[in-house]
Amino acid sequence: MSDAAVSGGGSGFLQKLPGAIPGLVLIVGTMVVIRYWIEPWMSSAVLFDQKGWLVKVVHLNYILLGIIFGMIYRNVIFGGKLPNLFVDGFRLSRLFIKTGIILLGSLYTVQAIVQLGAIAIFLIGGFVILSVVMVLWLGRLFSMDRSMTGVLANACSICGVSAAIATAPAVEAKPAHVAYAVATILGFGILTMFISPFIGHALDLTDLQYGAWVGTGILNSGQVLAASLAFNPNIAPGTAVSVAEIWNIMRVISIPFAVFAVTVWYWAGAQGNGGAERKTIGQLFVEKFPVFVLGFLVMVILTSIGAFGDVGMKGGPAASATIKMLRLWMTWIFGIGLVGLGGYIDVRELAQAGGTPLKVGLIVGVTKYVLALLVVLAIRDYLVAI
Amino acid sequence: MAEERIGSETVASAEKGKMTLFRDDRQEDWGAIILATLVVALIIVLTMK
Predict the structure, then answer these.
(1) Is residue A55 predicted with pLDDT exceeding 70?
(2) Is residue A63 domain-resident?
(3) What value does the mean pLDDT of chain A take?
C-alpha cells in the first residue's frame, strides 16, 4: 500500500483529520444520546396504552433514529447544507460503514460463507442479470438516451451510487445522467429502507429470510445495511445483518463485471462513442474491485481459525470476550456511520429524479423488490441458516 | 435541471469524492482496512487476560 493511501494523496487525509473532529463529535454525541437516553425512554414510554409501543409496534431503534437524526440535521436544522464546521466529520461516515463491514467478517466461518455464498451467488447473479436486461429493454422501449440507459442499468442492478459512478465514463454519461440515476435509486432506496422492517415484521419473516430479501431487493449498499439493522439491531451469526451483508458483498464484488457487460452493450450499439473508456475486464477488475472486501475475507479466515476465540454459534460454546466486544463496537461503528449517511441525504435532491429515468427506475426497482420477496419465500426451505 | 445541481456533497452527488475525506474510493477502502486493524488490535489488548 502506498503512503498516499494513508495520507489521502496531495490534499492529505491526516492533515484534514483535525477539521473532522467537530462533525465527528456531533455524530458520536448524537449516537450517545440515542443509545443512552432515547432508546431506554422508548422502551419504557407508554403510548396508546402499551409500554414500549415505539419499539414493539413502530420498531424504532438506534439505527433508524440515527439516520433520521442525520437527515434532520441536514434538511431541517442546517437548512439543506451541512455547515463547513461539520462537513468533514460527516465525510467519515462511509469510512465507518466500510470498517464495520470488515469487522462483520467475525460473524462468519469459511464454511458458513461457502454455504450461504452459494445461494447468494445464485440469487444475486440472477437478479443482477434480470435488472440489467429489464433496464436495457425498457430504455429501448421508452427511447431513453443510451448513456442514461447504461448508467441506470447498473445503478438498478448492483449497488446504486457506486455502480452508477463506475459505469459513467464507460458509456459517455454526462453528470446529469448520473444525477438522474442516483436520485431515482436513492429516492426508491430510502422508501424501501424505512418500509422493509415493517413489512418484514408484518410477514413474520425470520432473520434469514429478511436478510436474503433486503440483500437482493434493495438497491444501495448503505440502505441494505440500514434496513437489516433496523429489522434486528443485534449483530451476531444468523441475524438479519449477517445474512444481508453476505448478499451485499457478493453484489459489490460484481461491479467490475457488470460495468464490463454494460460497456460492451454500449460499444455494440452506440454510434460515435469515441469518448467512451474502452477497457478490458482485467483492467476494470483491478480498477473497480472494492479492496475493503479483502479485509472482510481476512476477518472471516481469522475467525475460522479461532484467532478471536469461540464465535458463539447456535448450539456451540458461548462467544469469547473478544468476539463480544467486537460485536458491541460494531453496533457503535455502524450507528456512527449511519448518522453520517443520514446527513448526506438531501431531500430536495430527490426532486432531480424525473421523466423517463424515474419511470424505468421505479418499474425495475419495484419489480426487483417484490420479486425478491416472492423468490425468498418460495425457496425459504432451501435457505441455509448460519 | 439536474446539471445545475450536481456537484454538491450529498449522496446524490455525481462527484462521490466529495463524500469522503480520502482522495478516492480505493484509498477509503485502505483507510477502512487500517481502522479495522486498529480496532481489532485494541480489542484484543483490552480483552487479554
Answers:
(1) yes
(2) no
(3) 86
How far lies A232's CA from each of A243, A272, A301, in Å? 12, 50, 25
On whether residue A365 sits in a domain, the answer given is yes
Q: How many CB pairs under 8 A join A and B?
A: 156
- Transcribe A194-237 into DSSP letters: HHHHHHHHHTT--HHHHHHHHHHH--SHHHHHHHHHHH----ST
Q: Is residue A178 part of a domain?
A: yes
How far is Cα A207 from Cα A225, in angstroms, rounded to an integer?
13
* Domain interval for residue A222: 100-330+348-382
Chain B contacts of A94, Cβ < 8 Å? 19-20, 28
Q: Average pLDDT for residues B7-24, to the nearest whole number?
A: 62
CB within 8 Å: B40 and A326: yes
Measure CB to CB from residue A329 to each of B8, B30, B43 and give the nearest one. B43
A79 touches chain B (CB under 8 A): no
What pLDDT digit, counting tens, does each position of A215-238 carry? 999 888 888 999 999 999 988 888
B32–A102 CB contact, under 8 Å = yes
| Interacting residues of A320 by C-beta distance below 8 A, sequence separation 6+ | A308, A309, A310, A311, A312, B47
Tell me what ipTM this predicted complex has.
0.81
- B26 contacts in chain A (CB < 8 Å): 5, 291
CA distance A238 to A118: 16
CB–CB of B29/A290 below 8 Å? yes
For chain A, positions 247-286, list CB contacts with chain B under 8 A: none
Average pLDDT over residues A29-49: 93
3-state helix, strand, coil in chain B (%, to 5): 60, 0, 40
Q: Test B36 with A179 for CB contact under 8 angstroms.
A: no
CB contact (8 A) between residue B2 and residue A179: yes
Instruction: Give A-chain residues touching B30 at CB under 8 angstroms.
Output: 1, 5-6, 291
Say how many domains are in chain A: 1
Secondary structure of A127-182 in HEC code, one letter for each residue: HHHHHHHHHHHHHHHCCCCHHHHHHHHHHHHCCCHHHHHHHHHHHCCCHHHHHHHH
Minimal CA separation from B42 to chain A, in Å: 10
Q: Quick one: CA dihedral A215, A218, A220, A224, positive or negative? A: negative
Query: Nearest residue of A to residue B9 by CA position?
Result: A344
- Asked whether residue A4 is assigned to any structural domain, the reply reads no
